[in-house]
Amino acid sequence: MDPLTAHSLASTRRTLLGSSAYGVGAAALSWMLNRDSVAAVQGAAPAPAPAIPHFAPKAKRVIYLFQNGGPSHVELFDYKPKLRELHGQVMPEEYLKGRRFSSMTATTSGRLVLGNVEPFQQHGQSGAWVSDLLPYTAQIADELCFVKGMQTDAVNHAPAISFLLSGSQLPGRPTVGAWLSYGLGSANEDLPSYVVMTSVSKGTSCGQIFYDFYWGSGFLPTRYQGVKFRGSQEPVLYLDNPAGISRQTRRGMLDDIGAANRMHLTSEGDPEIATRISQYEMAYRMQASVPELADLSNEPKSVLERYGPQVLEPGTFAHNCLMARRMVERGVQFVQLMHAGWDQHNSLTTELYTQCRDTDQPSAALVADLKERGLLEDTLVIWGGEFGRTPFIQGDIQNRKVWGRDHHPYAFTVWLAGGGIKPGVSYGQSDEFAVNAVEDVVHVHDLQATLLHLLGVDHERLTYRFQGRQFRLTDVHGKVVRGLLA
Known about the structure:
Elements: H1 3-9, H2 13-20, H3 24-35, E1 61-68, H4 73-76, H5 81-85, H6 93-96, E2 120-123, E3 128-131, H7 135-139, E4 144-151, H8 157-166, H9 176-184, E5 194-200, E6 227-229, H10 247-268, H11 271-294, H12 301-307, H13 317-329, E7 334-340, H14 351-372, E8 379-384, E9 388-389, E10 407-408, E11 412-417, E12 425-427, E13 429-430, E14 437-439, E15 442-443, H15 444-454, E16 464-466, E17 469-471
Parallel strand pairs: 1-7, 1-8, 4-12, 4-15, 5-6, 5-7
Antiparallel strand pairs: 2-3, 4-11, 8-11, 9-10, 13-14, 16-17
């Protein structure tokens, strides 16, 4: 190998380990594969760094129920009587002064207050306010921590989603699941450590595009990117061998390809070759693990009914929630469910109801199911979108059928459950119009830092050197929100 390549490989320990896979890492991998009578290979994903986790974790795994499009906090969780009281009147300008909104309402003057479309009730011993749109979520209110002072920096969907998941509005940074795969390794050798599933409510007109960079590995080796499971009976393509190809034949083919790739890795030193070797091996093992994972025939009828009528339809949010529970049971560390359709610019009185119907029951069922199985205490569940919606109307106040709200980054709500989170509380609050977070504000970087902390990771110490400097998920920001911790 030429000196320049050797120097490049030696620039970080992680790169060196990822590109060589010799020594202790190879011995451990050989043992794991031989245990299942599978030929040992070099180049599989390295074990986590010895210093990680940095301290004892409260959570071992994460299920992120990401609601693409920006759920309306003032419709669902952030009850503000003032909005109903002043419905149809001009929003006081002092609440909006200096605020940036999307181009759809940026130049609008005399913005009119829009009250919540359905009533709120208090629920549980915590007395949490939850909209009548979410009756199932209301039933588990005492398990949840509602974070009502969330803020973000972006006002449009793709930058805001990228910012929340990767810490940057620009694509190209590793997402949180990739950072955790890199830092903590995997708890299951037969399934990916980071899995993504997507869904869209049927008939919606406001679905969002699912860009691959929402689960990308950025500048980390691509072995750490999320593996997307399709919404079909065959969640991963090409699991079955072609006609006439036995599993033993496939094993021999992979051994030969692996030998050729290892020769190429030795001569070129490209860590992506090691990634390709590990991906081939993971695909081989998934031929056995994924069909068992996707087979819901052994789930009791009572469990299926709990998740709702769509649970047996691949590609629905309900089906994905049940699959998420089955994944974390099998050691998948980060499951990212992305459900689009919350972008109600002119459909609060129509499509918002569909979104709530499709997501409310499965979300609550997942939390209850995890708790009954003893998994909730070390599984962190997060529900929320990239921002909220404006307390003022977008559209004609006289025409209820087309009521809508624009994007709103200055105050929105997410809820958390399990995994070391304090249950039955509402943390932070917005002003009387739900325009600005004013108490116990939680910035996106703070949420990221807290998530990592719960998994035993110091967000300032999980770094990767790229283009001459150390990068981290929270960039140069973020603090752990101690008030959220149990």
